[in-house]
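Comment thread on ticket #2218

A.B. wrote:
> Attaching the input chain for the structure job we discussed in standup.
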Amino acid sequence: MDDRRLTPARPDLAAKYLEGKVAATRFVSGEEFEVFDGIAPLRREPFSGAMLDTQALHGERVTVYDRNDEGWAWGQLVSDGYVGWLPDIALYKPGAEPTHKVTALRTFAFPGPSIKLPPADTLPLGARIAVVRDDGVFAITANGQYIPSRHVGELDSFENDFVAVAERFVGTPYLWGGKTSLGIDCSGLVQIALNASGTGCPRDSDMQEGALGRALPVSELSTLRRGDLMFWKGHVAIVRDAVTIVHANAHHMATAIEHTAAAIARIKAAGSDVTSIKRLD
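C.D. wrote:
> Ran it. Output below, let me know if you need it in another format.
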């Protein structure tokens, strides 16, 4: 229970479910909130200049254990268990249960039934929404927003090929901690793509390496196939075919398709060998 990323525990305060497992001055049950903003940063410390560890998307639930006077809430994401500080203003009491999700890379939420209105928000792929009515053009949400129907799908509808989802992000700027088409990192790309195909996925590459799939011999690169995951220390890429990968990386500062052999050589020259290859089926 010592991974700070997944353990809501500090010397002064910890989640009630950790009582007897960690040391803390007091234990609290926490309160569930919902992310209302399209994208909410989850930061390591409670200030806007702190490291971005990950992002929470519209409709995600968060268990909040603490708040400070500067407008930050400390809590744990229900989806992947990540712990950190979010802007309090981005969180609302849970509304209607989500029924649908955004299936486009990103879309706009309009305040009324017209695309000529200034959008109320931008919603990323995977954002969860409660739809109360669909007029054929717009999906109307419980909070009165109008989202293009063609950009929305039911919660239990999934993509057939998670690699194809990742390929849609090609050209997206690299952003440490990001997981949207406005900015994404290597493990965020894997998580978002797998979630879109109905597969649960941890947030960071080391967690993914430990939890996903079965290991293949690193030496057998000739047996790679679409959907395999290739890991280095602190990095992950998705295999597209026998000779290429797709990955969000700081070398290109973008999500890019790259020849596998070239990527292996380039990353090795920077000091890291492939640590594992995982097959998900």
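A.B. wrote:
> Thanks. Noting for the ticket: The chain has a mean pLDDT of 97.
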